[in-house]
Amino acid sequence: VNTSNELNTIRLSGFMQDTWKIDSAGHFIVNAGVRYTFWSYNKELNISPRMQFTYNPQWNHDWLFHLRGGCYHQSPFYREMRNQYGELNPGIKSQRSYQVVAAAEYAFKMWDRPFKFSTEAYYKHLDRLISYTVDNVKIVYSGKNDAVGYATGIDFRLSGEFVHGLESWISLSLMKTEENIESDYITNDDGTLEEVGYLPRPTDQRFAINIFFQDHFPKVENFRVHLNFVFASRLPYSIPNQERKSGLTIDRNGNSTYLRTSTWYRRVDIGFSYRLLAADRDKSKHKSKFIRQINDLNVYFEVFNLLNTNNISSYTWIKDIYNQMRRVPDYLTQRLINLKIAISI
Questions:
Q1: In this prediction, what percent of the chain has a pLDDT beyond 90?
Q2: Does residue 165 have a pLDDT over 90?
Q3: Would you state the pLDDT for residue 254?
Q4: How high is the pLDDT of residue 66?
Q5: 38: closest CA among 114, 102, 81, 93?
Q6: Alpha carbons 268 and 107: distance in angstroms, whole number
Q7: Is 68 exposed, middle or buried (0-12, 13-18, 19+ CB in 10 A)?
Q8: Backbone angles phi, psi at 335, to 5 degrees
Q9: Phi, psi of 139, deg, nearest 5
Q10: Which of 15, 20, 57 is nearest to 34 (CA)?
Q11: CB–CB of 131/89 below 8 Å?
Q12: pTM to 2 decimals?
């Protein structure tokens, strides 16, 4: 695709919000606001109201309950408003989400250290979606608002100081997200058209566990190490150049299921960090003016995908000599070493 596109647009945005205490003790708090955006390219004005109710019960101040809801807009990125032929869509609209979230938090002490357990359940109705497919590791957008969908799930998270002064956490996420693309039909044997209906979105990862743990070397608290562990379920896929329903199969019980990658997602990361300069040090001891201006100076050495696991992101399809489609797995990044220096002034 060889195209020449030029954009010269104006964006305006702003928000207002306020917080009210319903009772003098502050057990019931309401936070409400509204955000607006305007984009001269498609002359779209979006108004996004949202509201949050927080309840801290008298019977136990360690609990917090939240109920949140609102309308959210995501203005299209450049690649989202460009179709597969490289053409821009001047009539494209922002993707929109109406969502409601219920959450609870419980703060407690364990080993005389602070911990918190939180859970969050949500439902999001999605419309004006810009559908996309994954070709190898490339995302190809349709360039138009051609789908509606939903996302629903629940998250659990336990965080706290498993090691004194360092926060670690473990989380469990369950999610289901599907979409229905407009004008998406399959052709039956008799030549009639049948609507495909809702199918899993490319991000439909039903299950994920994430563990992040920090520690420091004995008597050398500036020298820290962290481990990150991710285990998640498989991603959906379908056969290219065929109807999207080609991804559907029938199991032994006669139920329809969607094709998914052959392996679950697994990754282990390890990182080391050393704080050379701390914000709470006595800066007057340093002769250099530049060093006195530095608040924090940290050096990080990280190894991503430590076990060099082959995680499949998608498949490349080829035809054999019998004109049969064969899949070749596309793997995500394998072991990666990263060195980073972070300075805060």
A1: 47
A2: no
A3: 44
A4: 95
A5: 93
A6: 29
A7: middle
A8: -60, 130
A9: -95, 125
A10: 15
A11: no
A12: 0.80
Which helix H or strand E contains 240, and what residues bound it? none
pLDDT in tens, 32-41: 999 999 999 9
| H or E, element range at 290 | helix 289-293
User: What count of Cα atoms within 13 Å lies in the side-chain half-sphere of residue 158?
Assistant: 9
Q: For residue 268, what are the β-bridge partners?
A: 229
Phi, psi of 283, rounded to the nearest 5 degrees: -70, -20
Dist. CA 12–CA 105, nearest whole Å: 36
* Contacts for 283-292: CB closer than 8 Å, 24+ residues apart: none
Token pair recorded at residue 116: 């918190």
The CA distance from 344 to 218, in Å, is 26
Percent of residues in the chain assigned helix, strand, coil, to nearest 5: 5, 65, 35
Burial class (CB in 10 A: 0-12, 13-18, 19+), 5: exposed
Q: What DSSP assignment string belongs to 152-164?
A: EEEEEEEEEEEET
DSSP code string of 164-222: TTEEEEEEEEEEEEEEEETT-EEE-TTS-EEE---EE-TT---EEEEEEEEEEETTEEE
Helix, strand, or coil here: 289?
helix
* Structure token pair of residue 254: 């006669």
Structure tokens at 267: 């990754």
State the Cα angle at 44 between 42 and 49, rounded to 5°: 155
- Cα gap 47→15, rounded to integer Å: 10
Residues 308-334 pLDDT 10s:
999 988 788 788 888 887 888 888 888
Point out which residues pair with 216 in neighbouring strands: 224
**The residue to which tokens 């807009």 are assigned:** 73
Name 329's Cβ contacts closer than 8 Å, sequence gap at least 6: 261, 262, 310, 312, 315, 316
Residue 70 tokens read as 């609102």
